[in-house]
Amino acid sequence: MSAFKPGMLPSLLVLLLLPGLVALGFWQLARADEKRELLATHQARQAAAPISLTELERHADPAYVRVQLHGYFDADHSFLLDNRTRDGKVGVEVLQPFYDQRSGLWLLVNRGWLPWPDRRVMPTFATPDTSLNLQASVYVPLGEPFQLQGQPATGWPRMLTVVKPDVLWQQLGRGGLSYEVRLEPGPASFQAEWPVVAMSPDKHLGYAVQWFALAAALLGLFIYLGLHNARETHHEPSHRPA
Questions:
Q1: What is the DSSP string of 1-41?
Q2: Residue-wise pLDDT tens digits, 95-142
Q3: Torsion angle defined by CA atoms of residues 180, 184, 189 and 192, in that order, rounded to the nearest 10 degrees
Q4: Cα(11)–Cα(5) distance, rounded to whole angstroms?
Q5: What distance in Å separates the CA atoms of residue 110 and residue 98, rounded to the nearest whole number?
Q6: d(Cα 51, Cα 28) in Å, to the nearest integer?
Q7: Contact indicator for 168, 179 with CB cutoff of 8 Å
Q8: What is the rounded distance in angstroms from the CA atom of residue 63 to the CA atom of residue 69?
């Protein structure tokens, strides 16, 4: 023990910081594994044939399942999802109720992204007024989205900061599926390139390496300080009288 004297304060700092740094590294590794699994699920389901809404209701895990729709949009009630960016440009995503005539079900369809360069002027868009055959995929967000509380919106189109289908159906006074579905590129869609994850598995892996590197640096500095202090103590001259 005389060869290692890091001191009380450095020891306390290491005891407090090192477990947290290591835990953050393993958390990022776990997030990377989750994202890989999510991307694999998305890829497999996007390669599958679309199913009907009746089949979707029996699906235990609907995320990214492709669906075939036949019906019409409710052009009188549109929602604009604010603060959506594409290629560094700010815009909105357009969501509208859609009535599927084959199943008799309402669902909330995200038609894609529109630019909004001038926030003083509400974005304008057209809605098809005939029955359509569409393909879309179910979107299920990861975790509970954060939403600032504000005054309830009025008028149409209605601005949103987060999509909660059940709440929106209550506002509309009708029942509908508890999912948002995102249109595939087609005549009724706007810009419909949908990112699957906001952060790739490789980026999570990079963050994990950074946390582990910080932990290793902290531990290395702690060991160096302990050995250095021990050497300084060992070489101090003795002041005892001969």
A1: -TT----HHHHHHHHHHHHHHHHHHHHHHHHHHHHHHHHHH
A2: 999 999 998 999 999 999 999 988 888 888 999 989 999 999 998 877
A3: 80
A4: 9
A5: 10
A6: 35
A7: no
A8: 17
Q: Please provide the size of the chain in residues.
A: 242
Confidence at 206, pLDDT banded by 50, 70, 90: very high
67, 158, 161 from 57: Cα distances, Å: 11, 28, 27
**Closest CA relative to residue 142, chosen from 23, 67, 35, 24:** 35
Beta strands in the chain (DSSP E): 66-73, 79-86, 89-100, 105-115, 132-139, 158-160, 180-183
Work out the average pLDDT over 226-232: 70
Strands 66-73 and 79-86, bridge-based pairing = unpaired
- Residue 117 corresponds to which tokens in the numbers above? 């360069």
